[in-house]
Structure to design on (230 residues):
């Protein structure tokens, strides 16, 4: 099936998403990278996860993120001003910019660990893409191949960093006796977990954080790069 009409594509992706969904190959190819986040969910799981994440993307909430976007952009502009006359890889600069912004909006005061997380996810994405080529061979994902070992090691490191951020947020709430984990994406998901313990757990939160880090950074950095080139 190949669709090129925008209205038909819109209808397929909105009205028939539970039917079409993500294929087994897509889900297995990204399992070690973003797990079972919203991007790879199907059917009822997709509806449930979308409902959980929606409060982070309301108009008022996005307006609140603008200060982070402006601050990060100013820092990049100052850095580039120091390199006048030098050749600049604008694609890499846009990747750094979007990673900085997402680190701040997703993890707030833990944005330094978010940047470290971004570096690990970039490598993990490449390894998972390479390993996907072998999925057509039965049982290949269970073999202790070089790719599978590296993916497992990096995934463990990514989730260790995420757990440190989550535990730090929990400790802050406990010490300050606060009822809220913050208004960034991680804080909203943790608040949702406290209210819906049966429907959301720490692993799901980590998968959603990885998903939004990847999807938000990749598409935005490419769009900004293309816009500047035009």
């Amino acid at each position: 099936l190949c669709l090129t009409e925008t209205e038909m594509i819109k209808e397929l992706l909105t009205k028939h998403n539970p039917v079409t969904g993500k294929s087994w190959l897509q889900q297995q190819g990204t399992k070690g990278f973003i797990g079972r986040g919203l991007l790879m969910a199907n059917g009822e799981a997709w509806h449930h996860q979308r409902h959980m994440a929606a409060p982070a993307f309301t108009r008022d909430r996005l307006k609140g993120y603008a200060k982070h976007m402006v601050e990060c952009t100013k820092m990049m502009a100052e850095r580039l001003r120091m390199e006048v006359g030098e050749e600049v890889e604008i694609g890499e600069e846009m990747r750094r910019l979007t990673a900085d912004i997402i680190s701040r909006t997703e993890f707030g005061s833990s944005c330094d660990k978010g940047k470290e997380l971004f570096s690990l996810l970039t490598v993990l994405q490449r390894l998972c893409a390479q390993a996907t080529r072998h999925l057509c061979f039965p049982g290949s994902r269970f073999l202790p191949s070089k790719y599978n070992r590296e993916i497992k090691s990096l995934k463990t490191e990514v989730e260790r960093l995420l757990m440190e951020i989550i535990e730090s947020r929990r400790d802050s709430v406990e010490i300050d006796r606060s009822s809220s984990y913050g208004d960034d994406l991680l804080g909203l998901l943790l608040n949702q977990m406290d209210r819906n313990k049966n429907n959301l757990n720490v692993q799901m939160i980590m998968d959603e954080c990885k998903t939004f880090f990847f999807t938000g950074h990749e598409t935005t950095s490419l769009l900004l790069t293309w816009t500047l080139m035009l």
